[in-house]
Specification:
CATH class of the domain at 4-102: Alpha Beta
Strand content: 5-15%
Distance between the termini: 69 Å
Number of helices: 5
Shape: elongated
Oligomer: single chain
Order of helices and strands: HEHEEHEHH
Structural class: alpha+beta
CATH superfamily of the domain at 4-102: RRM (RNA recognition motif) domain
Radius of gyration: 27 Å
Number of strands: 4
């Protein structure tokens, strides 16, 4: 590794060509992402951002490193203008270019971070307790919002499936009309000419 400044500059360059994908189905894998995006751009690396707090079926996030900055911009533009769904889920994927404020930066030389247990008599103990309670409250709120979002997506999936089944039945009916010569009979009855293939 180089100096902290070189590491930081390398990170900034990498982030310019990395895309943050949000709202991915839990079934999406790195291979699925590479295959889906590989149709448009050259994918170098896919990293999923783990969620340790919520249930396993919540939407996932991923960082996708591409070959160039131009490719990163083009894929974000495509995903912004057109709904991009993966693994057949009714969950449009959101995309944006990453920036340095989204991540921890490389450690600067001379920086020393220490952790310790807080004593109840410590003046900061009450502040830490309030922050802990607030974090728990936010966690519950986020979980309930995600649960609601998943329920809505399940309804949308059911609706899409019903529409697909209805369309399939229509095409089957049209196909059966053409196959059993009913169309020819109807055309002759109404004085219409059938166009030969």
């Amino acid at each position: 590794m180089g100096t902290p400044k070189e590491e930081y500059n390398a990170l900034e360059e990498k982030l310019k060509r990395t895309v943050f994908l949000d709202n991915l189905s839990p079934q999406v894998t790195a291979a699925v992402l590479k295959s889906a995006l590989g149709q448009f751009v050259n994918v170098i690396e896919v990293q999923f951002i783990p969620n340790y707090l919520g249930p396993s079926n919540i939407p996932r996030c991923a960082l996708v490193e591409l070959e160039t900055v131009k490719q990163a911009r083009s894929i974000v533009e495509e995903m912004t203008n057109y709904p991009f769904m993966m693994s057949g889920m009714p969950r449009p994927v959101r995309a944006r270019i990453t920036h340095k404020d989204m991540f921890d930066r490389p450690k600067k030389s001379g920086l020393d971070v220490r952790c310790r247990w807080a004593d109840p008599k410590d003046p900061y103990f009450e502040v830490a307790t309030k922050e802990k309670d607030l974090i728990k409250k936010h966690e519950v709120e986020a979980y309930l919002l995600l649960k609601l979002e998943l329920e809505e997506e399940e309804k949308l999936l059911k609706h899409q499936y019903e529409v697909l089944q209805a369309n399939y039945k229509k095409f089957e009916m049209i196909d059966s009309v053409v196959v059993d010569k009913t169309l020819t009979c109807l055309a002759s009855r109404y004085g219409m000419r059938m166009k030969d293939d």
